[in-house]
């Protein structure tokens, strides 16, 4: 996992990796959120552009079943929708680097930690400790973030949607970036929920 200081803001860091975040940065500007990533102190769980493509594919499958045109450009989705779902994946403050342990096979003992996203979405963040040399919890740590769909099921991990982090503790000047593992992640965690928000706001052709 990559980690380290970056001499620039979170937005500068994302711009410095166009192979991963080119569309992500364009949507940040389109949604009117550049100031957040440039000036506010946040901890951002960054999805790569491939996560956006995965989301389009999933959404277009649903739209096809509904007999509606596909999404081919991010500009078809209202800025307010992008803004809402970006706010779901960053936390207030820039000191969140050492997250508690989580073990999905022993959640009572190692539950991770519940956080509220910037948009007050309930999330769980924790570090999975692998076995090192056959010793439990002594090996490699894997950071995970989980979307919790309902406050009533906040401790029922079987209802969570979990994304793994591939690069941790990248430290720009105004916070931290944790890059989500892009092949297996959907933007907004739940493409059906993302599409529902987009449809309610109105999708342009």
Report on this model:
- With 205 residues, the protein is an alpha+beta fold.
- It has 2 domains: 4-94 and 171-201, no CATH class; 113-166, no CATH class.
- 30% of the residues lie in helices and 22% in strands.
- It has helices spanning 10-15, 18-30, 34-39, 49-65, 79-87, 191-201; strands at residues 4-5, 42-46, 90-92, 113-116, 122-129, 141-147, 161-171, 175-180.
- Strands 1, 2, 3, 4, 5, 6, 7 and 8 form an 8-stranded mixed sheet that branches.
- A hairpin with a 5-residue loop joins strand 4 and strand 5.
- Helix 4 (49-65) crosses helix 6.
- The protein is globular and about 55 Å long.
- It starts with a strand and ends with a helix.
Briefly summarize what is shown:
This protein has helices at residues 10-15, 18-30, 34-39, 49-65, 79-87, 191-201; strands at residues 4-5, 42-46, 90-92, 113-116, 122-129, 141-147, 161-171, 175-180.
Topology pattern, helix = H, strand = E? EHHHEHHEEEEEEH
Helix- and strand-based class?
alpha+beta
Radius of gyration: 17 Å
The structural domain count equals 2
Based on DSSP secondary structure assignment, what is the total number of beta strands? 8
Head-to-tail CA distance between termini: 40 Å
Helix content: 25-40%
Tally the helices: what do you get?
Answer: 6
Shape: globular
In terms of DSSP E residues, the strand content is: 15-25%
Largest sheet: 8 strands, mixed
Mean pLDDT across all residues, rounded?
A: 89
- Runs with pLDDT <50, length 5+? none
């Amino acid at each position: 996992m990559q980690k380290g200081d970056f001499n620039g803001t979170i937005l500068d860091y994302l711009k410095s990796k166009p192979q991963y975040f080119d569309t992500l940065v364009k949507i940040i500007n389109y949604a009117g959120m550049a100031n957040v990533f440039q000036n506010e102190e946040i901890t951002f769980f960054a999805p790569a552009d491939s996560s956006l493509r995965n989301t389009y594919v999933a959404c277009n499958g649903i739209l096809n079943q509904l007999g509606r045109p596909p999404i081919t450009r991010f500009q078809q989705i209202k800025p307010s929708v992008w803004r809402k779902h970006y706010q779901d994946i960053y936390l207030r403050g820039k000191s969140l680097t050492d997250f508690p342990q989580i073990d999905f096979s022993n959640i009572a003992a190692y539950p991770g930690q519940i956080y509220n996203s910037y948009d007050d979405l309930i999330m769980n963040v924790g570090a999975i400790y692998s076995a090192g040399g056959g010793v439990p919890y002594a090996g490699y740590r894997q950071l995970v973030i989980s979307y919790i769909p309902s406050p009533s099921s906040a401790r029922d991990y079987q209802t969570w949607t979990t994304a793994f982090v591939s690069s941790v503790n990248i430290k720009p000047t105004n916070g931290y970036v944790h890059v989500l593992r892009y092949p297996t992640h959907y933007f907004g965690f739940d493409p059906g929920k993302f599409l529902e928000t987009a449809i309610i706001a109105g999708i342009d052709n």
